[in-house]
Batch of 4 targets.
Target 1
Amino acid sequence: MFSRSVRNVLSRLQFFPENLTPASQNIKKYCKTSSDEELDDHVRTLTQICVDRHYISPGESNMELFRRGVSCRYGPLGMELRRNLLEQWWHSVTRSTHQVFGINSTDTSTDGQGRLRIVESGELKLILEQQELSKEQLIQKVEELLQRSPSARTNFLQGALEQFIPSSDLVNRKLPFGLAESGLCFQPSGGSSAEVTQTSLVWFCSPRTSSQWLDHWARQRLKWWRKFALSPSHFSSVDVPEEKLEEVASRGVKIMYKFPWGQEPLETLWNRGVAELLQVHKGAHSKLQYGDARKSVPHVVSVTANMDRGLLSFLSNSLQQLRKGNSKQMLRQRKVLKLHPVLAPVKVALDIGKGPTMELRQVCEGLLLEFLEAKISAWPGYLKTLPTSLEQLNTKYDEMGVLFTVVISENSLESGLLQVRSRDTTVKETMHISEIKNFLSTYISAAYNG
């Protein structure tokens, strides 16, 4: 109810700062004015594949949220891809060579202008229905309601700043160290508000090294985004112009992705100085000071990413549309999501060929259990009831981004041999059933360490 209230009330009243330009505006502008049919086809094809192959749920409004790079109704594969992405982000920041700790904070602040508020729609309706109130009285009543209403979280910075003093004991009050968190936040966007899957690293360091740490994390984050990309050059970093810096920031860097409709930010880094930390810990100045000789208050570097837009960027980056000729020299288009092996939601699909269905399914079920025990995500294609050709299966699994397809046939019952097809090369190999689990584990492990 609260989430619905935020969406309904804030979209009507527009009590928020218009400080973000939504991707949807660029997309709409692009769709209206672009004459490049190839780019238009890429956007349309990607969206349709994501619906057909269970990355997102169908529906025009949901597809619009997906294209805007905000949280939408994800399907099973979309949820798994997002989970993999968040897991890799978490590992990259908490398992770095520097001290980073995970936290789960709450935003307890009650002051501040332009904050999103969670308002009971019934209360607001009662105020608006009071016809005897003048315009000034109506505004006052609404402002009073907003003041006593809890704020809707727009980022994790406040929670990390509040956790600074207690967390500093973990490092014996030594700098630098960081606090990491992820979850859903509300973001004002084009006259309405939307939920965004956000990741946050708040880094505390000495004043003289804050600029170097900003550069360090900018390099590390760009390297991380490019690590999982099919076309790494589409990811880039840019310095934020001085006139577009946040009020407290002395410097800023943005990690950008080149979508078919233009550049969009994925992650933003700010050198925020000391002002916000001092504001949060009023009266505790001595507890904030670090250093033996010249004591100083730590500077704050924030690193914030929109992982819904990040997920969209990897899907867009991985989509390939290839023309391929068959034995009759007829050209057809092969669409494939070449997601990085670490991010791919499904590593292997199990299917059956010709032969006794019951026995083949039993073999598949045994293999499925082995894969699950080895933490290899598998798709039980053998459970389908309608007959499907191998070409149709390959098309389906390529669009799902499945790394390998394993086909069990009558020959497998006799010899133990099965057919393994690679998504990336389309090469089919014959392999003994006792080797397949180790083969997949080795391949995935190499991708993790690559």
Note: Residues 1-35 have pLDDT under 50 and may be disordered.
Target 2
Amino acid sequence: MLPSPESLLQLLQRFIKSSTQIKQIHSVLITNGNLSIPNPSSFRWTTTLFYNTLIRAYLNINLPHTTLLLFTHMLSHNIPPNAHTFPSLAKAAACNKTPSFIDKPLYSQALKRGVLADPFVQTSFICLYAESGNVCCARKVFDEMPEPCVVSYNAMLDGFCKNGDMGSAVLFFESMPVKDVYSWTSVVNGYVKKECYDSAFRSFKRMIMQRVSGGCAVKPNEATFVSVLSACANSNRVTGLSYGKQIHGYIVKNEDRISAFVGTALINMYGKTDGLEYATKVFGSMVNKQVCTWNTMISTLASNGKEKQALEMFNKMKVEGRVPNDVTFVAVLAACARAELVKPGLHVFNSMLPRFGIVPKMEHYGCVVDLLGRAGFLAEAEEFMRKMSFEPDASVLGALLGACKLHGAVDIGSEVAKRLYRLEPQQCGQYILLSSIYAGVDNWEHATSLRNVMVDAGFQKPPAYSTVNAL
């Protein structure tokens, strides 16, 4: 006896986030013909409901392409989409590598089906247009909403911030009738992305001062803290450390506990602002440490000259049962490269696939080339690069060229530089490095020749800057 459509729908809704069950139920629905023939008029929307649930299910298991493909099947079988179909489709389209190719055709379908009056559909298209960089269309959709809610306002505000239009974002933010934590966080995060760190600090301070002064009480959430701590980590070290300590104090005073992600952001901030001691204390006080927390602590130790401690932390991570990921190995290999720990570094690299099932990526190969090159094993680094299963990119070649400069290896450096020219003919870095290599061995003729080539080609070295004036 075939299962009824109702029971299949219930099963699908029950296992809405389970990949295996979703695919099994989808197969049964195809076999039974539930997805190809519209149901009788009394159950007109049943087939649409099947498609809507499948579309949402595949989106939940991170298969946006399948979600969009289902919609094309839906249309080809003359199954009418409704207002519940489009929000999931808009999210799937936003996940696409080129959402700008999909946003307008999808919007046209929603217009054709007469569902654009639904605020959920309108808000989903604001998000999609913002993701594709089409802020004008997003604003047009927003302006057509008769009574936008705070969620729609936040979607439009986030669109301005994501696309770097902070001028419009601030004007829009000030015009909002209601501002919640997501509104404030979008502004803080927008300033961080634009590297306007002082503005991010001011926005955060204004947010918490409103709460303190009895204004419209908005409490910062995890995302707010992570954003503003990122501003501290990337700004001037002295200013960043000062603001970071104040924010840390606010978190301790106002939060019941430090979450894994806020703790990780604190460790990263202290690690980048010469506050290694504080970073270590935060790490030690955390009850819930995620893999990203361990990764950040390993990177922090390595970047602050504690490479051996970074390796010890990696071993401690494994002892405590945490499974390292590919980011962990980048951090550990970078630590080995900094300290020229060739043997431990190669051991770590060689354990990635057989022990942890992690296939080395370009970043891992680049770290090993850097490790061998810094330690003076230039021939071994070149041989290692030659044995890679894919062509090395500019980062890997650049690591070897940097090592050639360090050790004055003219011949290998010349060959590596030629390969870099072919990969990135418009970048001036390889010219400068090779010129420095020639100058280092007193080959001034070749050094001058390369500098002249740069001038003739119109290349300009980016101007250097100093943080001394900020101290």
Note: The chain is about 70% helix and 0% strand.
Target 3
Amino acid sequence: MANTDSVGLRVFSLNCWGIHYLSKHCPQRYAMIGDLLSKEQHDIVLLQEVWSEKDFLSLKQKLASTHPHSHYFKSGVIGSGLAIYTKYRIHDTFLYRYSLNGYPYMAHHGDWFGGKAVGLAILNIGSLTANIYVTHLHAEYCRDKDSYLPHRVVQAWELQQFIRHTSAGADLVILGGDLNMHPQDLGNRLLRTSTGLRDSYSETAKFDGCENGMTLIADNPFISQKELSPFEKGIRIDYILFKGSSKADIYCDFMSTTKGSVPDHPFPYSDHEALTAELRLETRTQIEAENDRKAISQDAAAEKLAELVDIVTEARTEVKVGLHCAERMRYTATRTGVMGLALLFLELAIAAVPWLALGAEQPFPRTSFYMLAALCVAILVTTFLLYIFYTMELKSLQGAEDQMRLAVGSLQERLRGFPLAQPHSSQRRPPEGLEPSAFDPEE
């Protein structure tokens, strides 16, 4: 390939765990992160869980000479936690907040209070237009009984939609962040298959870091074994994903992660490990792009479509599980509210006794009467708010399920447009467990 230009690009991503008063050694760790970024001088820095704008501004001041351009994405009660620092001028930004992000009454988890979102920054790298995305998805608190899985699947669905619809004119796409998903989790497969994004760890020519690219490891002193259960050594949930276009190829020559401890410091940068990917961009001519497009076989394209049908169908099934759960919770809130209302009416009836029976005294002590009334009102207000919340959750889940149904129908229609596979071709075989009828459009 006769490339006319080649550009190196170093991308850094880290979940900073920057919750003041809750995260350990927060000011010291931010100082360490600032020193690291000043020294390494990455081209693009993508940070998550920078919950305080003061911390963002402090890093911005410290990195003014090495990363003159930056942006902080604001969202939710305490912010999105997303920030980007770069050597390249930022021409435009946009933030999309996920429609589902946990439950407000699960305050000890805290995800609902952070406006989990995906941030987009558009840069010009030489003659190429780059769409840079940074995101943070809902955490997984229990692998065996993950009540947040439907929310995380919907977030992954919205993330891939956002990337596909905003990157049409981009020459290269880079996504960095804490996806809170293992490499083979449903949401991860949905994201990568639908967008064509490639994993730096899987694509790199050389790697230096934790075993299997893990980014949450047992050797990190901020991590408890309970958080990793049932994985003893650690898990990989942070990623740098990328893809090129007809105008540019992109390769990962080297990738590294931190390994828990930091030399000359008593603690790590964060509870997550930092990722660095050294990417190489190679522009190509229109003729080369056309030749590559022709080289893609119909069998390979059909195989990819069949895989995507299978994945979206699986995601749709998971969303339906979330729908049934939300409907059940809304029914429970409604029933509890009706009971509270009936109790309130009963108390009002008792309160009316002295007026209906002249000379009768109040049968209950006044203090108990008022406390019971306060309890009834609290039940009514709480159940009303929960009813509203579960209704909003239902509508978001129903919207995602409708979109997935349309997508599956469209993909199946495209699959029928391919010629029948030859008997010797094994690539056109439907994925294991996918019945032939699944290729038919739904009513």
Note: DSSP finds ten helices and 15 strands in the chain.
Target 4
Amino acid sequence: MAKDIEGGRHGDIALKDYYDPPPAPLVDPEELASWSFYRAIIAEFVATLLFLYVTVLTVIGYKNQSDPYHHGNECNGVGILGIAWAFGGMIFILVYCTAGISGGHINPAVTFGLFLARKVSLVRAVMYMVAQCGGAICGCGLVKLFQDIYYVRYGGGANELAPGYSIGTGLAAEIVGTFVLVYTVFSATDPKRNARDSHVPVLAPLPIGFAVFMVHLATIPITGTGINPARSLGAAVIYNQPQAWSDHWVFWAGPFIGATIAAFYYQFILRAGAVKALGSFKSSSHM
């Protein structure tokens, strides 16, 4: 069984059974000269492309099968449950495939949260976000290329605030939904937890995908579920209709606020980052 001691010392040796990587620098010149850096960017691009291609196709397919004007009904197609499974299942698959290459972010909000926690450098975070947004646009572009008529008819999978809901409600749904996702990411990838439970690294994509699934069940009726600015941007750019842009800021502000809260909560409260920093400051001041 792993030791449950984090801060104690035995002589000069810390009784710590896990390794916390040092904070990532804002700019790391060495990673710019490394092939693994560019390989990770490509992996994020391709993963986000595949994510949007499969999920937007699922959304459009359901709307077509349930369209009463084309001999469909609400019982046809995968339904909201199936759409939620498509989003959660694809995240599970893609995180599993890319975690060892890029970390499997596939979401600018996740990248932003990890940047705030100093898990990735500023340059890597920016390049990941660019790759994710580019991949999302290309993924939606492929959907439109293959199903142009259905794509335009059924809204292109773009996120919109549902009738009857205020902007405040939509923003709150995006904040809370993204908090659930980013909190799960931090928990599933915590090195302290991985040291105690050897199976956690293998299973990490499962709770992350399941978090996406659960959030979609809750928020599809409100906003269509963004919680991923790249997903919202890609669909809006390719669909490019006024309704896709009218409240588009909500699908950036909400996820980034939610990611910020999740990063602060996990790092400074659950992992007691603020207490550790204060203790380190006090000990250094008495030397």
Note: The longest helix spans residues 35-65.
